[in-house]
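Session log. Operator J.P. requested a structure for one protein chain; no other inputs attached. Running the standard single-chain path with token output.
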Amino acid sequence: MAKTLKGFGGTAVIEIRESDAGNAYRAVYTVRYANAVYVLHAFQKKSKSGIATPKADVALIEKRLKDLIRDKETSR
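Structure written below.
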């Protein structure tokens, strides 16, 4: 299952959710740039409380997205 993550300033950030043998896995990527898909984070979700993406993982995704945007803008 894939869903758009909110809170990234309109940037297309998508989370793929998968479960296997009682374990939950997530992969988060962006399609902000037409020439590539950039994987921002992939992890095994260990929290048993709620379905939300853990705050530490969201913070890492935000940092990597900001770094990607900065790198793309400075390489023009």
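Operator note: The mean pLDDT is 88.
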